[in-house]
């Protein structure tokens, strides 16, 4: 069923610089990278930044779901809270896990991660309570009890935003409302190596190093592209008719979220340098940055990246013409306007759609 939000998206084009850091590591501990336009770039994967956004929403007081292999324990805890014995809670939890996974180990661990909210775990426990905590329940009934209980506006906004795939129960699948591109440096970025030593404080007989090691790092100005499908967000069972609280929470989290890798040794917590945000109807449109940015006339990489983003966006807007479907456009940057001004303008724009 269509609504005023159908095929309507908020798109974030973000330029964000980080100093010495290793925000996202590969299998050997090196910063992730990619070849773009034949030139090596720094990369932070979309899944890495999605997790950072989920955790940021939690820090903002938003109740989020859990991605876990221990569905059985989640449901068992809720069953116990409703009066089930320890044995009843355990067996009911295992029965619930088997409804969503191919196999469950003796310790209750499922073979795959499942995205579940507290309201869904509670819904399953309520279902078992009505049966006298009888674990011999029909799988389809359990799946329906879980599906009926989901309430993203209450405690599963991240499930509505990032979606869920359940191979064993396709009716439980939820299409993601938010789409994240991998963050890519706008310029050439080559990892460097930090060689370090540590002194043994208690060894008085040796003035040499007690430990030696090395790790890789980089520094980069990234282009981040994120699209939020308002029609899909509304369809993902947001209980309230007003979707703006979800949009606001997501935007704030997007602003403050930073991947946590090596933050203790290479703290990197810089905010946006610049963001171009649009409210549009139509397909997603991001800027490729195929040509690596170079500082121009004494400007830094961030300023050069912002200039290229603006130029490319203007050209893209002209190229799409009437198909671009732009309803509103905002800029956020030091000196231009902050996150509060952006949110206020977004609220007004959504109200007038």
Task: Please provide a written account of the structure.
The relative contact order is 0.19. 35% of the residues lie in helices and 22% in strands. By secondary structure, it is α+β, with helices and mostly antiparallel strands. Strands 1, 2, 3, 6, 7, 8, 9, 10 and 11 form a 9-stranded antiparallel sheet that branches. A two-stranded antiparallel sheet has the order 4-5. A hairpin with a 2-residue loop joins strand 2 (33-36) and strand 3 (39-44). It has 2 domains: 8-59 and 177-351, no CATH class; 67-155, no CATH class. The longest helix has 20 residues, at 301-320. The mean pLDDT is 92.
Secondary-structure blueprint:
Blueprint: E1 8-21, E2 33-36, E3 39-44, H1 46-59, E4 66-68, H2 71-81, H3 86-98, E5 114-116, H4 118-130, H5 139-149, H6 152-155, H7 157-162, E6 178-180, E7 183-185, E8 192-198, E9 211-229, H8 230-235, H9 244-256, E10 274-281, H10 301-320, E11 326-332, H11 339-351
Antiparallel strand pairs: 1-9, 1-10, 2-3, 3-7, 4-5, 6-9, 7-9, 8-9, 10-11
Helix pairs in contact: 1-9, 2-3, 2-4, 4-5, 9-11
Summarize the structure in short:
With 353 residues, the protein is α+β, with helices and mostly antiparallel strands.
Shape: flat
Taking Cα atoms only, what radius of gyration do you get, to the nearest Å? 24 Å
Which ranges are low-confidence, i.e. pLDDT below 50, for 5 or more consecutive residues?
A: none
Largest sheet: 9 strands, antiparallel
Separation, N- and C-terminal Cα atoms:
17 Å
What string, H for helix and E for strand, traces the elements in order?
EEEHEHHEHHHHEEEEHHEHEH
Mean pLDDT: 92
Question: What fraction, in percent, of the residue positions are helical?
Answer: 25-40%
Number of domains: 2
Q: Number of DSSP strands?
A: 11
Structural class: alpha+beta
Summed up, the helix count is 11
Strand content: 15-25%
């Amino acid at each position: 069923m269509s609504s005023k939000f159908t095929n309507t998206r908020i798109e974030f084009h973000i330029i964000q610089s980080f100093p010495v850091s290793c925000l996202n590591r590969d299998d050997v501990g090196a910063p992730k990278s990619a070849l773009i336009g034949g030139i090596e770039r720094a990369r932070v994967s979309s899944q890495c930044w999605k997790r950072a956004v989920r955790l940021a929403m939690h820090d903002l007081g938003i109740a989020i779901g859990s991605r876990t292999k221990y569905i059985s324990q989640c449901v068992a805890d809720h069953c116990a809270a409703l009066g089930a014995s320890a044995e009843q809670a355990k067996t009911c939890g295992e029965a619930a896990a088997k409804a969503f996974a191919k196999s469950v180990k003796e310790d209750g661990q499922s073979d795959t991660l499942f995205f579940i909210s507290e309201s869904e775990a509670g819904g399953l426990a309520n279902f078992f309570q009505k049966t006298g905590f009888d674990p011999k329940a029909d799988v389809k009934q359990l799946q329906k009890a879980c599906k009926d209980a989901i309430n993203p506006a209450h405690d599963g906004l991240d499930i509505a935003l990032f979606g869920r795939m359940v191979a064993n129960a396709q009716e439980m699948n939820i299409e993601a409302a938010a789409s994240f591109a991998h963050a890519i440096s706008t310029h050439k970025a080559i990892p460097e190596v930090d060689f370090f030593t540590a002194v043994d404080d208690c060894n008085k007989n040796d003035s040499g190093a007690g430990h030696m090691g090395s790790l890789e790092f980089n520094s980069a100005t990234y282009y981040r592209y994120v699209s939020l499908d308002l029609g899909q967000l509304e369809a993902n069972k947001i209980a309230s008719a007003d979707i703006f609280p979800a949009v606001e929470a997501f935007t704030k989290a997007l602003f403050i979220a930073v991947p946590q890798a090596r933050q203790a040794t290479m703290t990197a917590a810089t905010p946006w340098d610049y963001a171009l945000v649009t409210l549009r109807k139509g397909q997603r449109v991001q800027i490729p940055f195929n040509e690596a940015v170079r500082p121009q006339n004494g400007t830094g990489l961030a300023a050069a990246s912002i200039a290229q983003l603006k130029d490319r966006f203007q050209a893209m807007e002209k190229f799409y013409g009437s198909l671009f479907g732009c309803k509103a456009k905002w800029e956020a940057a030091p000196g231009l306007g902050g996150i509060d001004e952006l949110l206020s303008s977004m609220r007004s724009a959504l109200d007038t759609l």
